[in-house]
Structure formats: C-alpha cells, structure tokens
Amino acid sequence: MKVLLLKEANDDGGQDPYIRELGSHGLEATLIPVLSFEFLSLPTFAEKLSHPEGYGGLIFTSPRAVEAVKLSLEQDGKSEVWKKSLREKWNAKPVYVVGNATASLVSKLGLDAEGASSGNAERLAEWICSGIPMESIVVYQKVPHPGIQRNLDSYYSEQGIPASITFFSPSGLTYSLGHIRELSGSSIDRIKFAAIGPTTARALAAQGLPVSCTAESPTPRALAAGIRTALQPHSC
C-alpha cells in the first residue's frame, strides 16, 4: 500500500527513518519536500550567541533553528570561539528543544538538551516553568519548495492516488493542498489524511479535510502505527 509523506529527506544521506519504519509495516512510502528555508538575521543571532551572560538559556524549536547556529557562527568567524568557550558557557544554562530530531542536532553542537520528549511546542511550553521572560529571534522563514507541483505531478502520474498523505506542518499543507486537490479530484475522499502533530491536525480540519490519524508523538514509530491503524478496514 502506497503512502505519501510531504517532508524533506533525511539530512545525513541515509534511508529516511520514516520510510524505514513505514516499510516495516508493509507500507511503501515516498517523500516529497514541500518547503524550502531561507535563513534570516544571522549576524544578529551570532551576536546574541556571543553573550550567554545575557540569557538564562536557549530554546530550539526545530532542526533548522539548530542549523542557524552553525551558519551564523561560521559566517561571523566565531566557530572556534564557540568550541573554546561559548559552548561551555551555554551548557551551564538550560537548553530546551522540541522533538528528538532537534535534540540530536543540538547534541552535535556540543550542547545538552532537555525537553525532547515533549514532542511539540505546546507541550514544551507547559514543560518549561511559566513566567520566565523570553526573547525570540526569527532565524529562518519557510517558503514553498520550487519543485512541489512537478514532484506531485510525477508521483500521481507514476503511482496513482496514494492511500494516505501525511502533512508535517501547517505551512506544508498550505503550499501543497491545492495541487493535491486538483490531482486527486473526486478520489480525494478515499485518501486517509495524517498529521504529525495537533497543530497540523487543526490546520487540516480547518481546510475541511477529515483527519484520519494524528501521530501521538512526532516520531517514525508513532506515525507508522497511526497510519497502519487508519488504513485498516472500517477504521475511522
């Protein structure tokens, strides 16, 4: 049974863990990226990272935010300073993350992260003590992947209507749903729509689509289990 995942491929070049896990459930998964990322405010970010004394900790909300640390330090010529002193100073403070994928990348920066098991931003906010003053900086923005329509056209022409489509963010839904509706036509009612988390599930529902599956946590195992259940006869 064929399922479609609207996400980018694994960064390390190996088999994507979602494809591997879904395959173990007898599902043939295909990835189509629907988002690209443009990094913003990197010099400002590097300056803030250079002054850990001014902050009580760090919160990383996505893998791209972690990537922005590396890029900002490289562009500002502070990679060695990070290794020699800044990393240790930040490690003396709490570092919070959303999800296991983000936690894994944070560890590669040499930082010890907390909160990976929270699963999504809403739970992390509850997990962190309320009332702590926050300062946020936007270091990237999401834009439509330039190959969305071409890749979806190719998938539908070669493999037909997928049994399930999983959305990994509200932005990904926004940029791809029009193409999916056009390609699916009246057969869209046969597709089981899945969401990686509650925020994306709400975005799906707001578009009038039935949410057949919301992963209990943003992990390959949880998503695969949910899709497998949704695809069983008479499931809802």
Describe the structure.
The mean pLDDT is 91. Helix 1 crosses helix 10. The strands form three sheets. The chain has a five-stranded parallel sheet with strand order 2-1-7-8-9, with helices on both faces. A two-stranded antiparallel sheet has the order 3-6. The chain has a two-stranded parallel sheet with strand order 4-5. The two termini are 18 Å apart. 45% of the residues lie in helices and 16% in strands. It contains ten helices and nine strands. By secondary structure, it is an alpha/beta fold. It comes from Pipistrellus nathusii.
- Strands, total number: 9
What is the terminal separation in angstroms? 18 Å
What's the overall geometry? Answer: elongated
Order of helices and strands: EHEEHEHHEHHEHEHEHEH
Please describe the biggest sheet, giving its number of strands, its sense, and whether it closes into a barrel: 5 strands, parallel
Name its key features.
236 residues, alpha/beta, two-stranded antiparallel sheet, 45% helix, 16% strand, 4pyrrol_syn_uPrphyn_synt_sf, UROS/Hem4
SSE layout:
Layout: E1 2-6, H1 17-24, E2 28-31, E3 35-39, H2 42-49, E4 58-60, H3 63-75, H4 79-91, E5 95-97, H5 100-108, H6 121-127, E6 140-144, H7 148-159, E7 164-167, H8 170-184, E8 192-195, H9 198-206, E9 211-214, H10 220-231
Parallel strand pairs: 1-2, 1-7, 4-5, 7-8, 8-9
Antiparallel strand pairs: 3-6
